[in-house]
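A further point concerns the way the authors explain their paired sequence and structure data. Since the whole study asks how a given chain folds, the encoding of that fold should be made plain. A single example would do more here than another paragraph of explanation. An entry of this sort, consisting of the sequence and the corresponding C-alpha cells, reads as follows:

_____
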Amino acid sequence: MSAVEISCVVIGGADPQSLRRSVESVVAQTMRATEAVVVLGLSAPGLTADDESAAEDVRAVADELAALDPARVRIATSGAEAPTTAVLRNHGLDQARGRYVLVLGEGERLQPDACRNLWEAAERSGAELVAGRWTRRAGRRAKEQPPARLVGSELYARSRTLDEHTFDQHALDEHTFDNPAGAPELLTADALVTGFCVRTALLERTGLRYAEDLDRGEMLFGAEAATAARRIALVPNLIVGGRAPDDPAATLEGRLAAHVRVAELLTLQGRTALCEARDRIFLADQLIALARQFPKLDADTRTRAAALVAALPAARTAPDLRLGLPPLERVCLQLLADGDADGVLAAGYALGKPGAVATALTERDGRVYWRPELPDDPRAREALDVTELGHQYRPLTDTPLLNHLTHCGQEGDRLVLEGRLPAPLQLLPTGAPLTATLEFVARGSDGRLVFRTPVDEVWREADAVHWRTTVEIGALLRVGGARERVCDPRLALHTPTGTTTGPLFLERDRVDAAGSHPARPRLGRLFGDTWQPYVTVKHHLALQLTARRRPGRLAAAAVHYLTHFRPARKAKRLAKAVRRRFDRLSARSVKTRVYNRLLVRLPTRKGSVVFESHMGKCYGDSPRAIHEELREQGRRGLRSTWSYASSTDGFPADVRLVRRLSWRYLWALARAQYWVDNQGFPLDLRKPPGTTYLQTWHGSAYKRMGFAESRIKAQNAPERAKLSAALGRFDHFLVRSEHDVATLARDYRQPATSLVRCGYPRNDRLVRARATDESRGRFPRPALAAELGIPDHRQVVLYAPTFRGMPKKGRTTRLPLDVRQFAERFGDEYVLLVRAHYLESAVLPVCPPGTVIDVSGHHDVSELLCLADALITDYSSIMFDYALLDRPMVFFAPDLDAYVAQRGGYFDLRAEAPGPVVESQDELLSMMGELKKADAAHRADRARFAERFGGYDSGQAARTAVDVLLAGRTTRR
C-alpha cells in the first residue's frame, strides 16, 4: 500500500465547524493511507466584515487541523479571485496525491470504515468508480435519511460490479429498470452527488473536472464519471453522512441548469431511455417538491421559481413525462411549465391538504378540469384533468375549500380580513343566498371554546366567493389566558345546500400587515395583553396571546422562573418518574406476568363465557353465531363477556364489554369457564386449568398456514415453542371439511381428539340463505340492502381481497382493483361493496354516488355474503364460504404467481377455482360484462368446490358447537 491511497478533498466553506467535522472524519479513518486536502480561497476584495471574519475563522480551523496531523492534512490555497465551489474542488483534484480521489461537500462526514470499504472494492474489482450509500440531515433531532428515491432501491443492496456496457441503450430497453443487475439510479436519481471515489487515472484519461459555470456541478460530475468509467463497483456500506438537506426553492436555479446539462449529456451519448427516465424522476422528486413549498415562499420567490421552470427546454417538461402521476401533481407540473405562480400556489396548497378544492373547477364533455381556461394542446389539457379526484360527486359539507386571505390588515384596534373562496362546479349554485360566520377556536379547549362573529359582506363574482369583515379582536376573544393562548380563525360559509368550514390560508410575507391587537383575558392582563397574528406551519392564520407591556412580561418571567428553577425542575423530574412507574403497571409485559403468575390461580366462575372475534375488532363471525345460539336456546346461568379492540360500536349493549389487554380483560379470561374465539387469544396468556377453549377459526386455507409457513419455519426454536404452546391451549377446533383436517389441523398440530367436524357456525346463515333462494328466490333482499341504500334494480358485487401484509404506520393499503374504473364501467348495473381485510385499511376514491360502498367496518361478513349477487376475491378464505351460496365468483389475482412463491398454496387455484381466474383489470372488466355466461360455465365447478371444502357445513354448526362447549370436556392444558 502506497503512502496515500485515497485523497479526500474538503472545501473550506463558510462554517468552520462544518470544516472541522469533515476533516476529523477523514483523520479518523481506519485506513491510515488517506489524506485530507483542505482547499481554501484567497480573500477577495469587497468582502463584508462578517464574511472576512468567517473566512479567517475557517482558515484558523484549517491551520489547527493541519498542525495536529501534518502528514494527513494538507492545505491547498486556490489563486483564483472569488473562486466558486467548483473552482476549489478542481484545485483539490489537481493537488490530490492518492490513487483514488473522494470529494466531500460542506459538513459531510465519512464513516470510520468508508475509505477502507471503497478501496477494497476498487482493488478487488478493478473498478474506476466505487460508490456506496449516503444520508442527509433531516432536521433537528431527526434521524438522517437516504434520498427518498433510493429508499427500498436495489442499487446498494449488495456488493456488485458493473461493466462499461451497463448504460448501453440495448441493455436498458428491456431489463434495466426492473432488473437489479442494472443501476439506472446512478444517472437518473443523482445517486453520485457524494459517497463515491474515482481513480486518479480516470481523471487523467478523461480530463474530468467540475463544471465551473454550474452551482450544482456535482450532479453533472457524477453523471460524467459514471458514463466514462469502464467498470463501476457498488458497495452496501454507508459511506457519507451529514449531507445538507434539500431545499428545492433555494437551489432551484442550480439544479435546473445541472439537470439540463446531464440530460444533454445522455442525449448526446444516445441514451434516450435514461434521459427520459431522468426527466420523469426530476419532475416527480424536484419540481413536485418545489410546488409543495410554494405556500411558504414569498411572492417574489414564487414568481422567480415559476419563471425558471417555464424557461426550461420543452423536452424536459413534456406532457408525456407526467403520465402515471397523480392528478394534482400533473396539474402542478403543467402550471409550472406555464409559469403560473398563482396557480401553483393554489395547487401546492391542495397537495398538502388532500380533498381540498383550491380553484374553480370546470366540467366539459363529462370531464372535470382544474381551471376554466384550457390550453389548445390536448396533452396539456389532459394534464389539467382532475376527474378522478371525484370533486363532482362530493357534497359541499365534505369539500374543504381554499379560503385564501387576499388582505390581512389593521384599522385601529380592529383586524381587517378579506378573502376569496373558489365556487367549483355545482357545489355553489349561481344565485344561491350566501352568508358566513368567522369562528375563532381556542386551542387547548378540545373545540369547546369557540368565539363567533358574522361576516360583514359576502358576495359572488364569476367563479369565486369574496368576503370582507372587521373584528375587534380584544372584545371578541375573551379567553381565560392560562391555557387558551392561541386561537385559530376559520370561516364557515353557509349555503342552502350546507355549510363548509375551513381555516384561513395566508402567505407568510403578508402577516406583518395584520399588526397587533389589545387583549383582555378574563384572568387579567398579567396573563397577556396582546393578540399577535402569525402563520402556522400549515400556512394558516392564527393569533397568539403574548405579553408586550411590562406587567405582563414580569408576570411571564416570574412564571418561567417558578417552573424552571432548580426545585421546580426536580419536582418535574420526580413527577415524570412517578408517571413512568405508574405507566409500567399498564405495560403488557407486566400484565402478562401478573396474569400468568397470579390471576390464573383464581377460582373459575361457573357459566362465564368470554367471546372474541378477530382480536376484538368486531362482533361477528362464528363467535357471534355461537353467542346468538346460546341466547336462542335460553341457557340459564351463563354470563357472556365480549372483548373489543378500540371501539364498542356495533357490539351488543346487554353484555359485558372489556377492552382487549386491559386489566378487566385479563380478569375475565382468568375467571372464565369457557373461551370462544376465531383467531387466538393473546399467545403469551396461559389458559386457566378449569377453562374450556373452543377455537372456531376464521376460514379454510388456500395459503400455507402455521408451521408450514416459511415465516414460521425461519423462526428460532423458542419462538416456535411459544407458538406451539399457544396452539396447545385449544380444547376444540372446528373444521368444515377434510381439507381443513389435512391443512389447518395438521399444520397447527391439533390432535384428532380436538377436532369437531361440524362446519363453521357463521356459515349456518349461508346454508339457510341458499335454501331460501331455492324455495322463494332472491327477493325481498335482506334488510341490510335498505340500510346501505341499494336499489332493487341493481345487482350487488362484493369485492373482498385477502391480507397482503401490514401497511406501514399511518399508511393505507392500495387495493389491487381500480374501483373507480369499475364504477365508471358498471355503475348503472352493479353496486360494488368493498371490504378490506380486517388487519388492513384502505381509502377508496370518490366515485359516483351509490356505485361504491365501503363496508370494511361492517361487523359480520356473513350478512354481506348473503346480500351479494356475485363475489370478486383473490386468495381470501371468503371463497370457501361464498361457495355455499352457489353464486358467481370471479378471482382477480394479478399477483398470483408472486403470491404463491412467497406464501405457498395448498392447491392450484387456476385448476380448482369455482370461477374464472383473471390477472388484469381489463380481463376482470370483460369478465364482469359477461358474468351470466361465465356463471353457467362454472356451476358444476362451484358444486364440487363447495362439497370438497365445505362438506360439514350443514346449517347446524352453531348448535353442535354449543353442545360441545357446554359438555365441559377439557382435553388440553
Summary: The first helix runs from residue 16 to 27. Residues 169-181, 806-811 have pLDDT under 50 and may be disordered. DSSP finds 34 helices and 35 strands in the chain. Residues 599 and 667 are 7 Å apart (CA to CA).
